């Protein structure tokens, strides 16, 4: 991070490392079948743009696009999907975009703070809304007021809107594993 707390350098390094690994996969593996490329991508390349992303939160669209570009190249390598759009390739492979995977991780962390393993630590993080509405989930969170635009990117501010849009079945899960499965279903409708 630089003196202005900008994470662009960290993002560029993560994208560069992932791109190098993708180049190694391209040069060393002759098969372009889904069964070969997808496990290599998931095991070797994808952890680099996702490593500690909760700490060096992406704030600028150009940084998000830089990381997403590496995943675009990886999905384009697979035979039969070269001419599909990026969203169609992701849908066909059963993958999420990196931006959606960050949201997925944030919602799982919010669940753990609200109902799971970190429940005691999450008492002061979120404020629950007391309402008797029947639409949506019953565990809605209150959006706090913010005075600075930079606070919009904070975990406690950003996750509230998405948490409130989750279906009741996902929010009422009794364990993080059940929540993850139901969250996959809820997020798969969004590309």
Measured between the Cα atoms of the first and last residue, the distance is 30 Å
Helix content: 55-70%
User: Mean pLDDT, as a whole number?
Assistant: 81
- Low-pLDDT stretches: none
Helix and strand pattern: HHHHHHHHH
Q: Name the structural class.
A: mainly alpha
Count up the helices: 9
The fraction of residues in strands falls at under 5%
Total beta strand runs: 0
The biggest beta sheet is recorded as: none
Whole-number radius of gyration? 19 Å
Query: What general form does the structure show?
Result: globular
Written description of the protein model:
The chain is an all-alpha fold and 191 residues long. Helix content is 55%, strand content 0%. Helix 1 (8-28) runs parallel beside helix 4, helix 6 (98-114) crosses helix 7 and helix 6 packs antiparallel against helix 9 (176-188). The longest helix is centred in the first third of the chain and has 21 residues, at 8-28. The protein is globular and about 60 Å long.
Q: Could you name the key traits of this structure?
A:
single chain, 191 residues, mainly alpha, globular
Quick structural overview:
By secondary structure, the protein is mostly helical.
What is the strand and helix layout of this fold?
Blueprint: H1 8-28, H2 34-45, H3 47-50, H4 61-76, H5 86-93, H6 98-114, H7 155-165, H8 168-171, H9 176-188
């Amino acid at each position: 991070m630089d003196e202005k707390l900008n994470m662009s350098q960290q993002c560029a390094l993560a994208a560069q490392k992932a791109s190098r690994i993708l180049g190694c996969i391209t040069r060393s593996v002759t098969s372009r079948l889904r069964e070969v490329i997808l496990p290599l991508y998931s095991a070797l390349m994808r952890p680099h743009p996702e490593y500690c992303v909760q700490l060096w939160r992406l704030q600028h669209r150009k940084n998000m696009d830089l990381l997403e570009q590496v995943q675009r190249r990886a999905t384009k390598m697979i035979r039969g999907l070269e001419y599909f759009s990026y969203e169609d390739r992701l849908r066909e492979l059963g993958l999420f975009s990196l931006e959606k995977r960050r949201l997925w991780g944030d919602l799982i962390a919010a669940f753990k703070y609200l109902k799971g393993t970190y429940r005691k630590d999450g008492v002061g993080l979120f404020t629950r809304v007391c309402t008797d509405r029947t639409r949506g989930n019953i565990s809605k969170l209150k959006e706090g007021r913010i005075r600075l635009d930079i606070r919009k990117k904070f975990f406690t501010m950003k996750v509230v809107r998405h948490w409130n849009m989750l279906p009741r079945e996902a929010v009422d899960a009794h364990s993080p594993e059940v929540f993850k499965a139901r969250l996959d279903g809820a997020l798969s409708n969004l590309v």
